[in-house]
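Show me any protein, fold above all:
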Amino acid sequence: MATAWETLERIETQAGPLELRRRGENDFLITVAGRVLMNSHANRSELALADLACTALAHLPEPRVLLGGLGMGCTLRAALDRLPAGARVEVVELNPHVAHWCRGPLAEINADALADTRVRLRLGDVAAAIKQAAQAPGAYDGILLDLYEGPHSGSHAQNDPFYGRRALAHSRAALAVGGVLAVWAEAPDRDFEDRMRAAGLKTQTHRPGKGGLRHAIHLGLRET
């Protein structure tokens, strides 16, 4: 008989109850209104997001990276494992409870990533952080967006705060030449790829893994 899920904490949000659940020693879920947002044992695309982006930055001794969305901290941990000692990683997370969980019960699966001296946590809206960074062009070598909802057919082409044309213009401006924008998506989105190219980014799309549910990673390289 399978072990039942235990709810460790439940927080009321505008989107519905946000819950951290655990089963056994190290099997975790984060859900909102009953919908599974993250599973600690099904995160290959999130790890691939960090791997692909940080591989593109491997030649830099002190890369500056912005990570939007903390989640369970596994993407952050994967990025830290691939980045050099001189890297600086700014994590922008909207929900302070998620940050509390990552420092608490989830620290065992992310190897206490937030305690790494290369990391600075900022509570707030990553879209606003990118827009602000665009005022000082070249602020980051890498921008990783690992958000609950990636680009999809319903994303407003012009005004979506993360994936619309205006947002992509901000992301490109915030990147140094040679920098990379890496975006997690539930599935490939050709319209989003077209918007990335129109914003002046050289694009690649990857689908990590073989078999089962395969998400997508959109990469955009700023060449000039």
About this structure: Residues 169 and 199 are 6 Å apart (CA to CA). The mean pLDDT is 94.
